[in-house]
Design brief:
The protein is 54% helix and 7% strand. The protein has 285 residues and is mostly helical. It folds into 2 domains: 201 residues, no CATH class; 67 residues, Alpha-Beta Plaits. It has a 3-stranded antiparallel beta sheet. Strands 4-5 form a two-stranded antiparallel sheet. The longest helix is centred in the N-terminal third of the chain and has 23 residues. The radius of gyration is 19 Å and the shape is globular. This is Methylamine utilization ferredoxin-type protein MauN. One of its GO terms (cellular component) is plasma membrane. Pfam families: Fer4_5, Fer4_7.
Length: 285
């Protein structure tokens, strides 16, 4: 039964290192996602307020203001000059993701990531391999579209459709269009294309991908000479194109995965049976 549950892309890692080690980064990510969601949910559901607000804007322990820099940017182009706490909150969040990786938000914080990972797992188990060709640049066009829409309407346009915000409201109220949006994302990833939402359409991921191009924390293919070309890292990676330069380079080519699309999720580390990859920094490649 356990063998059936294990993702095909982790199977070689499990055979080489065991179930626990082959799910180390996956487990850490899930605990982080649950912890972050719990911080926001304990107040509305239990009356114990750790953070007031939502993923877009909040105050932690009544002391620290946090603002999503993408929301902040939409507010600016919508001609709403934010108050000082929103400015400092956006700068703080931007600084954190410049440090740990822009799309670490996608892999470590965003609750919708759990839904898209579940859809990918279902694709493996059901043998669904059909992929509609979607252009990864679409998410950049959608990102630009949300900024234009904010400028034209004077609103934070993406918040009307943002699955993360809608999901949080649905958790609190128990009902709402949020569940419909989340189901649509799940079905999109399951039946239309592999990682259709996160890798091709989500403007939040596109924004944090741009932010992450300069981030400090990186995955390194430090021991790429040991690679056996088993393909496990490419199968598990939400953005497999980011691996190629670091893994297939030679000589003095950098072994760091530098592409902004990398989520620093550690999936390649978990799945690799010969320990090619490490979580590291630009300082110690």
């Amino acid at each position: 039964m356990l063998r059936w549950w294990i993702s095909d892309s982790r199977r070689l890692g499990v055979e080489a290192h065991g179930v626990t080690r082959a799910h180390k980064w996956w487990f850490l990510r899930r605990m982080t996602q649950i912890f972050v969601l719990a911080i926001f949910m304990t107040g509305p559901l239990l009356g114990f307020w750790i953070a007031r607000g939502n993923f877009a804007s909040s105050q932690l322990l009544g002391l620290v203001d946090l603002s999503d820099p993408y929301i902040f940017l939409q507010s600016l182009v919508g001609r709403h000059w934010p108050i000082l706490p929103a400015i400092t909150g956006a700068l703080l969040i931007a600084a954190i993701y410049i440090l740990v990786g822009g799309r670490a938000y996608c892999g470590w914080v965003c609750p919708v990531n759990v839904v898209t990972d579940a859809a990918y797992w279902m694709r493996e188990k059901t043998g669904l391999t059909r992929d509609r060709k979607l252009d990864k640049r679409t998410r950049l066009f959608i990102l630009a579209g949300t900024l234009i829409a904010s400028a034209l309407t004077g609103t934070i346009a993406w918040e009307f459709l943002n699955p993360v915000s809608l999901l949080q409201r649905a958790f609190i109220t128990g009902i709402g269009i949020g569940w419909v949006i989340i189901l649509a994302v799940f079905l999109l990833d399951l039946f239309v294309a592999r990682r259709a939402w996160c890798s091709h359409l989500c403007p939040v991921g596109a924004f944090y991908g741009l932010l992450g191009r300069v981030s400090l924390v990186r995955v390194s293919a430090r021991d790429r000479e040991a690679c056996t070309d088993c393909g496990a890292c490419f199968n598990i990676c939400p953005e497999p194109h980011v691996i190629v330069p670091a893994l297939k380079g030679s000589g003095d080519d950098t072994r760091l995965i530098l592409h902004g699309d990398c989520q620093n999720c550690g999936g390649c580390i978990d799945s690799c049976p010969v320990d090619v990859f490490r979580m590291t920094t630009r300082v110690r490649p």
